[in-house]
Amino acid sequence: MPRAESWLKLAAGAIFAFLYLPLAVVVLFSFNDSRLNAEWVGFTLDWYRVLFADTEMLNAALNSLLIAVISSAGATTLGTLAGLALHRYRLRVLPALVLAPIAIPEVLMGVSLLIFFIMLNMTLGTLSIILSHITFCIGFVAIVVQSRLAGMDESLGEAARDLGATPFQAFRLITLPLILPGILAGALLAFTLSIDDFVITFFTAGVGSSTLPLQIYSMIKIAVTPEVNAVSTLLMCLTLVLILGVSRLSPGALRGAETLKGDETP
User: What pTM was computed for the model?
Assistant: First the structure.
């Protein structure tokens, strides 16, 4: 048994190294005093100074933040309503309708949204990106809110109704405060998914609209410069902070999202 346990720990260590060593290399070389990512020369913060002086990169970052804030607000509102519907109504078709955008491959989602916007004669740009991000984020928020509702004591709402509260008062004074951590966790999750989305944004951005992932992609087509390492490090830090926030507010949220991501994998 101890021998098997040692092999299991070794395998786990190898898997974690495979997952996180590339990220560690990106972070390390963002401080490398060389334009080449081949060898370590010395420590420097110059690439971060270059990054913050790059107007195109800053505009793309601000555009990504604007899109993520608006998308997460819209997805949180609609996703919360969807989560309430999933919890309250036991219709078999309802989970499929709400959660299908998560299970559909991103390429298919991007192409279908592109065709849909063209059929509406809609100019591709910031608005089309926001609408597409809201579309695929709603399901994630609904899962988080539904998981929060599943752990809620239903008798509290029933007691409020017995004491004379209207359905809206019972929701506002009892249900909403109890599921608020789940709603905030869903909002953070939607923000995280929106700010680093590439595939769907690539199809719905149109000409002249750029986000941070698209800007990074256009830069690495030439070469992976230390500036790309620097912006990737900052984006990684932001994502980690948001994920930690989600895990603190709703510990079960990430497990639900990971399950669906796993279902999405062919």
Answer: 0.77
